[in-house]
Amino acid sequence: xxxxxxxxxxxxxxxxxxxxxxxxxxxxxxxxxxxxxxxxxxxxxxxxxxxxxxxxxxxxxxxxxxxxxxxxxxxxxxxxxxxxxxxxxxxxxxxxxxxxxxxxxxxxxxxxxxxxxxxxxxxxxxxxxxxxxxxxxxxxxxxxxxxxxxxxxxxxxxxxxxxxxxxxxxxxxxxxxxxxxxxxxxxxxxxxxxxxxxxxxxxxxxxxxxxxxxxxxxxxxxxxxxxxxxxxxxxxxxxxxxxxxxxxxxxxxxxxxxxxxxxxxxxxxxxxxxxxxxxxxxxxxxxxxxxxxxxxxxxxxxxxxxxxxxxxxxxxxxxxxxxxxxxxxxxxxxxxxxxxxxxxxxxxxxxxxxxxxxxxxxxxxxxxxxxxxxxxxxxxxxxxxxxxxx
Length: 390
Ligand SMILES: *Cc1c(COP(=O)(O)O)cnc(C)c1O
Prior knowledge:
Aspartate Aminotransferase, domain 2; 2 domains; three-stranded antiparallel β-sheet; globular; binds pyridoxal-5'-phosphate
């Protein structure tokens, strides 16, 4: 029989990195030593206290049962306490906190709770792809909000068509931002809150990088803004801060009705996060934070090494205040980010992500993840110099 995918699958745009993935495979088979700077997955291990807490909790049969879908009360209380400590935001752990199987899971599911067929979600471009794809899977229409360099990679809310703004149901934002590394001040969040109250839009702020900042910069929470909780939620993740990408745990906090909608979907789709992992996450948020500081020092050294090295080659690269990425214009005379990434790979064996893979407004840029050891970054710089790539 002929297999026919549902329309929602056909609506998912082609995977732009597929061609690069094939090239990587081909190069590997040729024996090329690939330096992969394309993955947003920390190469450092999960801190030991967290692993040990998992081991201990995994041994306890009480944790072998189905968990509560919203997250254990102790985990939700830890999250509320962390928000109070970190952002001076108060949350009711019962109603305003929900555990997620990684924040991606929550981001992908939220449109199912609020988007009817044809409804609009405003999504940044370039962006983490799940805002757009989650909207498509729910039958909605993602409308791009361009993130332009001259606007600090923040959407210009005044440029959004009034009809579209009135019709939009969800607005996604993400600061500190992946892929642009841009940060946002509370003033911007305030504009978003005003805009969203005026237009009755739910705000979903994706904030997995608030703890991954440099040189004393402290990222704020969207929920610090007055009335933000009336219209929005914030997604958080332990993946990046604690090197726990494989563990699949995150959380969402904020407006209780929005979270109840998300919870309704989740209740019927998944059965919560393994309790032993929730105990490990409690340890992550409440335990000593010295590994986070140590790791950020490592990322800062890598950032400085790479930015200084690329600048010496005449590339126009800024030092980001947050995240473990660099985002910069592809060097002259390149126009296409795919052509640049492909030449870089073919000539030097280095992989960086073409900006257009994050959306059409990412064209002309490339993302470099600092997820390799210093020695490998030095080797990468050396190769770029040697092959005189421009
Ligand atoms: C990594 C990342 C996520 C997903 O994190 P998980 O909690 O591992 O699902 C979400 N949003 C952005 C912007 C990310 O970079």
